[in-house]
Amino acid sequence: MDPVNRKVQKTYRPVNILQYGEGNFLRGFMEYMVDVANEKGVFDGGVQLVKPIPYGSLEPFAEQDCVYTVILRGKKNGARYVEKRIITCVNGAVSPYEEYEAYAAFAKSPELKLVVSNTTEAGIVYDACDDIAKKPPESYPGKLTKFLYERYQFFSGAKDKGLIILPMELIDKNGETLKSCCLRLAQRWNLPADFTEWLAGCNVFCNTLVDRIITGYPKGEAGALERELGYSDKLLVTGEPFALWVIESDNPAAVAEEFPLDRAGLPVVFTDDLQPYRQRKVRILNGAHTSSVLAAYLSGLDTVLDMMQNETMRLFIERVVYHELAPMVPLPDKEVRAFADSVMERFENPFIKHSLLSIALNSVSKFKARILPTILETQEKTGALPVLLCFSMAALIAFYSGKPGENKLIGTRDGESYDIMDDAPVLAFFEKSGALPAGRLTREFLSRDDFWGRDLTLLPGFSDAVADALQSIRDNGMAGAVERVLR
């Protein structure tokens, strides 16, 4: 079979995007969007990949002329959806460790406009030991600071040669954090004050929020997919149809003018405040997971798809999402409802086998971040407690009530064991107290302000509601208790 690059006529566009990272997410998310925007004529951009670490090989990119396929599969607008796109917007891939001068040359390009990155959450860190003399510096902020300094020098500090920086690492305020790291490095490296001013004032470091499940290279079905496509592709990437990219800056219109992906009908939002969108994602998408997966697992289910295909658990999730989580999100009702609808479709994706146990990791901290704010706001605004979210706290307690293991607890479901993984203090609490009567266990757990940031037994009615739900789970089994709470 011919490789994918033999199937297309590639157009080389000006390199106006420098991309640190060559992994599956960027290829199935950012590069996909740029390719669509190029095709629709609203953008004319080429992407240059930069390998951010010394490990790994760029050979597949060279072999395929940086051409590859993205396949998006799932549900869309209520129907099964499959999209196949050959991506041709990537001009090249370079390793700064082996080809430093070729990489550094892009700093001198007048056509360069944007820098994007996905170097993992650990990539945006300040490394006081990093060295500007290295080719390249070790850390991503070090690489970027040196790159910007070389650009500043080449263009003699021209104000219009600053870049738009779009980090996609999954940390809060990723743009602000990256900017802070770069400024600290500039100071530590004793770079000129004029450069520091140019770095801070002429470059736009955007905070971003990204959302799309990329399942990566489909190992088990690659052969069948290649036969269906009619060519081979070592860089094949699969993912879900849903996507969202929120880009925050002080001047969103100016950023949108340079990078007008939204004009191609792509799900990109330019805003001066992404917090409502983050809250929507955390409260509804992540909150739907955290509030339901422990009950679903103890009801005998194993994946998110199993959960959605179970009549009782599906009703539980729908009521949680539409009646308890969504009403507390500070965005227009129409937007929130549409997002909630998309969450339901994502959970029903038949191509993604998302393990409930993988979602269950560190559920206490997840509950605190994703569910507890909705419980507190609901009680404050309505004077009542959200019944199903109270039940989900009881499901958490039931799930965590296991026996000691090595750096974990071991729970049982229908006679089979499962691992309970969380921070040491949480595991120590349940090892000591997990077998207590429902009322006492609930009170002791909810009173732990080191877990919750406050004593939750002081929330009117909450401890009693959770204890009653936990007793129901113990008396009726999880599946039976879920049925009872839905009546």
Structure characterization notes:
The protein has 21 helices and 16 strands. The chain has a six-stranded parallel β-sheet. A four-stranded mixed β-sheet has the order 4-3-11-10. Strand 6 (114-117), helix 5 and strand 7 form a beta-alpha-beta unit. With 487 residues, the protein is of the alpha/beta class.
Radius of gyration equals 25 Å
Q: What coarse outline follows from CA principal-axis ratios?
A: globular
The portion of residues assigned to helices is 40-55%
How would you state the average pLDDT, rounded?
97
Low-pLDDT regions:
none
Terminus-to-terminus distance: 58 Å
Q: Structural class of the secondary elements?
A: alpha/beta
Strand order of the largest sheet: 5-2-1-6-7-8
Count of individual helical segments = 21
What profile does the largest beta sheet have?
6 strands, parallel
Strand content: 15-25%
Number of strands: 16
In short:
The chain is built from 21 helices and 16 strands. With 487 residues, it is α/β, with parallel strands linked by helices.
What attributes characterize this protein structure?
4-stranded mixed beta sheet; alpha/beta; 487 residues; 46% helix; 16% strand; 16 strands; globular
What's the structural blueprint in terms of helices and strands?
Blueprint: E1 15-20, H1 24-28, H2 30-39, E2 46-50, H3 59-63, E3 68-76, E4 79-87, E5 90-94, H4 100-104, E6 114-117, H5 140-154, E7 164-167, H6 174-188, H7 193-202, E8 204-205, E9 207-211, E10 214-216, H8 222-229, E11 237-239, E12 244-248, H9 252-258, E13 268-271, H10 275-298, H11 304-309, H12 311-325, H13 333-347, H14 356-359, H15 363-370, H16 372-382, H17 387-400, E14 403-405, E15 408-413, E16 416-420, H18 424-433, H19 438-446, H20 449-452, H21 462-485
Parallel strand pairs: 1-2, 1-6, 2-5, 3-11, 6-7, 7-8, 12-13
Antiparallel strand pairs: 3-4, 9-12, 10-11, 14-15, 15-16
Helix pairs in contact: 5-6, 6-7, 10-12, 10-13, 10-15, 10-17, 17-21, 19-21
